[in-house]
Amino acid sequence: MTIPTITSLAPLLERLFDEAEAANGATLAAVADLSDADRARLMRSKTDYRDLYGRLKEAPLAVSRETGRLLYMLARASRARAIVEFGTSFGISTLHLAAGLRDNGGGHLITSEFEPSKAARARQNLIAGGLIDLVQIREGDALKTLSIDLPDTIDLVLLDGAKALYPDILDLLEGHLGPGAIIVADNADDSPDYLARVRAPGSGYMSTPFAEDVELSVRIG
Fold first, then answer.
1. Does residue 147 surpass a pLDDT of 70?
2. Global pTM?
3. Secondary structure of the chain in the HEC alphabet?
């Protein structure tokens, strides 16, 4: 039996998760001078979020191990061939998604990252995992990088960048989402406008909270 790609990636992923956990102290220190109210304001602002993420440019900001497994499982279960990710960071989530594509027989993953140093780290990790051939990393403002040259049909979306932009990114991608397309939004509680949209009756989505802070949505209309 062929060994699943996610299994062969286990040592790399374990190292990256361990490094992300070890960086938690530095991540907290980078925003220690901000009050809870200030953090919430920066997180939910469509302009000031740049200040927050500028402080966190060295932080992995990784998905959890459980969310990573979920991403791989959803990619496999949906037989995804075209995936779009908003927020690459160091590429931990990207590795899970690309592993799903590899085990589906191939495909294409477009991921967008604003911080050049993070995009470089992600590229190194994808090369180490032998998955870079499946992934296009687009550097810069996702409102621009994800507005052009998208697949006709997108099977799976991960939203894990600036939370205030989740509705705007969905606007860019929605015309490419057919019935059954899956959207995973990490830390979705920090994007109340997005949650209101995908949970609204008649929105064209069926949506439910999953795990601690993930919103799982399926396009139904």
1. yes
2. 0.94
3. CCCCHHHHCHHHHHHHHHHHHHCHHHHHHHCCCCCHHHHHHHHHCCCCHHHHHHHCCCCCCCCCHHHHHHHHHHHHHCCCCEEEEECCCCCHHHHHHHHHHHHCCCCEEEEEECCHHHHHHHHHHHHHCCCHHHEEEEECCHHHHCCCCCCCCEEEEEECCCHHHHHHHHHHHHHHEEEEEEEEEECHHHCHHHHHHHHCCCCCEEEEEECCCEEEEEECC
